[in-house]
Design a protein that fits this description.
CATH superfamily of the largest domain: PAS domain
Number of strands: 12
Strand order of the largest sheet: 2-1-5-4-3
Number of domains: 3
Shape: rod-shaped
Oligomer: single chain
Structural class: alpha+beta
Low-confidence stretches: 447-455
Order of helices and strands: HHEEHEEEHHHEHEEHEEHHEE
Length: about 450
């Protein structure tokens, strides 16, 4: 943003300076050249009055002689012609050489002719007689424009320096403005990143910058304070629920076990059913706590060797699969890495494999695979079980949405919370031929990134 502010300010000031400086320079240049030409024409007219005595009266013309001498010292070149085009007087120089056609035009029409020859201005002025009705000759005056050009170069140099100074001042002012605006925004951005990373006590300073930015920082701090209060309250409530529910459930299960030891067969079956319900309730409480931990988890992502994690979890779950006569396979195209919180991928795979093993009947098949996919790492768990309907797939990531009798419906909810907390996404789809496929996309990691393997 600071760069954009500086470039925008420089662009605006540059356009403004050019719009002012260039016309000013052109107007001044035109004025100077016009004045130089007018002065040259006036000087040539003065010479013409001196030359009239020499041409018409054949006088020696001491005034013309002095003027020629002084003009030579000043670097001016003069030639005086009579009406027949013959040279009458002059101080030499190629700057006064004119063609016969130009001389005839000046003598015939009586017009003043001004042309530029190299770096000199040449003026041809007709010489009129005393009554002004006839033309008796012409004066050619050639004056160097070197000093004029030097003045104009100096003028443009100063205009350029003024433009550069204006741009430099604009750059300094824009840089100061950019720092004044961007410094509190950068601090606010860093605070937002730290808050998103789990530092709930993060606050942003609200003392610098424009009033709008300071107000934004104050609102951010208010939001962060309320979020910290809510999260801490939620965590405390879940801890209290964990303690308050687990203890009486454990005591109740022990009492039922003691009662079942001395009960008759009918009562023993009823007590066993009650114990099953208590076990289900305990699993439900554990699942709710797991979901709460997944929702509150904010871990720093680290490079994870996905292929190694898949091999490890497949090895751990294969005895359970063999006991249920389910084929558990793994397929990786090679070393695959992703960015995720430490231990999160293991929890994701454990929940997905547990759900799949619950759903797939004997003789079924489960395959876990991973591969790079675009800018992400894709992990797929596919089974050939009964699958889910479209409606069930839409609701599967919600709490307590279960298609398995007696299931808590929290496994996929935990998976969804863990995946999204790591910046990924999870999608359910039908397996070709029947079954359910869970596709998890996680941010990818560079192959040369160092990091721990599976934990």
């Amino acid at each position: 943003m600071a760069r954009r502010i500086v470039l925008t300010m420089l662009g605006l000031v540059g356009v403004l300076l050019i719009a002012v400086v260039v016309p000013l320079g052109l107007i001044t240049t035109g004025h100077e050249r016009g004045f130089f030409q007018d002065d040259t024409v006036f000087s040539a007219g003065t010479l013409a009055s001196y030359a009239e005595d020499r041409i018409a009266d054949h006088a020696q013309g001491s005034a013309l002689t002095r003027t020629l001498t002084r003009a030579r010292r000043l670097g001016e070149q003069i030639r005086v012609y009579d009406a027949a085009g013959h040279l009458v007087a002059g101080n030499g120089g190629q700057g006064t050489a004119v063609s016969a056609a130009m001389l005839s035009r000046a003598l015939g029409a009586g017009n003043v002719l001004a042309t530029e020859v190299g770096d000199r201005l040449r003026v041809v002025v007709p010489v009129r007689n005393d009554d002004g009705n006839g033309i008796v000759g012409a004066v050619v005056l050639s004056r160097s424009a070197a000093q004029l050009d030097q003045r104009l170069r100096t003028l443009w140099m100063w205009l350029g320096l003024v433009t550069l100074a204006g741009l430099a001042a604009a750059a300094v002012a824009a840089a100061g403005l950019a720092r004044w605006v961007s410094r509190p925004l950068n601090a606010l951005d860093g605070a937002a990143q730290r808050l998103g990373g789990g530092a709930l006590d993060t606050r942003s300073p609200a003392v610098d910058g424009p009033p709008e930015v300071r107000r934004l920082a104050r609102n951010f701090n208010t939001m962060a304070g309320r979020l910290e209060t809510l999260v801490h309250g939620h965590r405390a409530a879940m801890a209290d629920v964990s303690h308050q529910l687990r203890t009486p459930l454990t005591a109740l299960r022990l009492r039922l076990e003691l009662m079942a030891q001395d009960a008759d067969p009918v009562a023993a079956r009823d007590l066993a059913d009650a114990q099953d319900e208590i076990s289900r309730l305990s699993r439900l409480v554990d699942g709710l706590l797991a979901v709460a931990r997944a929702e509150n988890v904010v871990a720093e992502p680290v490079p994870i060797a996905v292929d190694a994690v898949i091999r490890d979890r497949a090895t751990a779950w294969r005895p359970v699969a063999e006991e249920r006569a389910v084929l558990l396979e793994q397929a990786c195209t090679g070393p695959v890495r992703a960015m995720a919180g430490s231990g999160h991928l293991e929890q994701i795979l454990d929940n997905l494999l547990a759900n799949a093993l619950e759903a797939v009947p004997s003789g079924g098949r489960i395959e876990v695979s991973a591969s790079p996919h675009g800018g992400a790492t894709r992990v797929v768990v596919a089974d050939d079980g009964p699958g889910m309907s479209a409606t069930q797939q839409e609701q599967a990531f919600r709490r307590f949405a279960s298609t398995t009798p007696g299931g808590a419906g929290l496994g996929l909810a935990i998976v969804h919370r863990l995946v999204t907390s790591n910046g990924g996404c999870a999608v359910l789809s039908d397996t070709p031929g029947g079954g359910l496929t869970v596709t998890v996309d996680l941010p990818t990691a560079a192959q040369d990134s160092g990091g721990p393997g599976p934990s």
